[in-house]
Amino acid sequence: MRALIFNSDLTFGVVPDPVPAPSQALVEVAAVSLNFGEIAYRSADVRPGYVPGWDAAGVVVQAAADGSGPAVGTRVVTFGWSGAWAELRAVDTAELAVVPDSVDLGLAGALPVAGVAALQAVRRLGPLTGRRVLVTGASGGVGRYAVQLAARAGAHVVASVGGLTRAEGLRELGAAEIVIGPENLRGRVYGVLDNVGGRQLADAFYRLEDDGVVMAIGRAAREATVIDFELAGTRSARGRIENFNVSTPFGDDLAHLVGLLAEGELDAQVGWRGPWDKAMEAADALLARRVHGKAVLDL
């Protein structure tokens, strides 16, 4: 089968068809979404035949042998830490969700890593009704989901972006305020959903309320974070930073997000979409911050 693989660049290769384990379904992939992390932080030492990719949506062509999961012909969205960028994907049935006919598979394919990360991080902040929550990197894939989900949870959402052009559509998604970087934030916030890292994470930490919390989700800045915990007058008395990582399996959270998408309560925020033979164009656009939200490739 054909697959996207990393050599010096993102190119096509021919790899063996996956052989599903008993608890895995075989899915014919219709669309995949790209994530900043899987491109920017890809391994330099990739074994032959390795297929990267986290997010894919398609149709089940072989049901799991152990009887778990959906039947042949079911439309699904899937997650895994590899194997998405190919014509066929073997996926654990606990890592997929059924997609109704009313939902475009490309939009569903934009959900797994970015959507589930945002959902789980919002939950980790606890009750948010009436609380100020800052989302850094709000124009990116995780950020645009985080703005929507935090607003749905009752938060007063402050969206931090790198420039005014990156703020497009964020108020419609639920942002009550927009700032150009957390250093320009006025007042304090209870929670931070940080997708950038580096200096922005430090600036966000200095603006926490007492007992506030930063969820350190991503490292889009690709730089170290240096925090002066003794910086007088600009720090929370008891603020903390949590190194956030998603929890698996994704199945239940994916089903929840697909339900919101089907009901029109969530926007997939696909800012770039095209055929998968333009994968390098999409990857370059993501790395250069030219995509507002998610990039989706159709097979």
Rounded radius of gyration (Å) = 19 Å
CATH homologous superfamily (4th level) name of the largest domain: Medium-chain alcohol dehydrogenases, catalytic domain
**CATH class label of the largest domain:** Alpha Beta
User: How would you describe the shape?
Assistant: globular
Query: Got a strand count?
Result: 15
Number of helices: 8
Task: Report the span from N to C terminus.
Answer: 12 Å
What is the CATH topology assignment of the largest domain?
A: Quinone Oxidoreductase, Chain A, domain 1
Q: What's the CATH architecture name of the largest domain?
A: Alpha-Beta Complex
Counted up, domains total: 2
Quote the beta fraction.
25-35%
Order of helices and strands: EEEHEEEEHHEHEHEEHEEHEHE
Low-confidence stretches: none
Main sheet specs: 7 strands, mixed
The residue-averaged pLDDT reads: 93
Approximately how much helix is present in the residues? Answer: 10-25%
Compact summary:
With 299 residues, this protein is α/β, with parallel strands linked by helices.
Overview of the molecule:
With 299 residues, this protein is α/β, with parallel strands linked by helices. It has two domains: 2-110 and 268-298, Quinone Oxidoreductase, Chain A, domain 1 (Alpha-Beta Complex); 114-243, NAD(P)-binding Rossmann-like Domain (Rossmann fold). The chain contains eight helices and 15 strands. It has helices at residues 36-40, 105-108, 112-125, 141-152, 170-173, 198-205, 251-262, 279-287, and strands spanning 2-6, 10-14, 24-34, 55-62, 75-79, 88-92, 96-98, 132-135, 156-161, 175-180, 189-194, 208-216, 240-243, 270-275, 294-298. Strands 3, 4, 5, 6, 7, 14 and 15 form a seven-stranded mixed sheet that branches. Strands 10-9-8-11-12-13 form a six-stranded parallel sheet, with helices on both faces. Strand 9 (156-161), helix 5 (170-173) and strand 10 form a beta-alpha-beta unit. The mean pLDDT is 93.
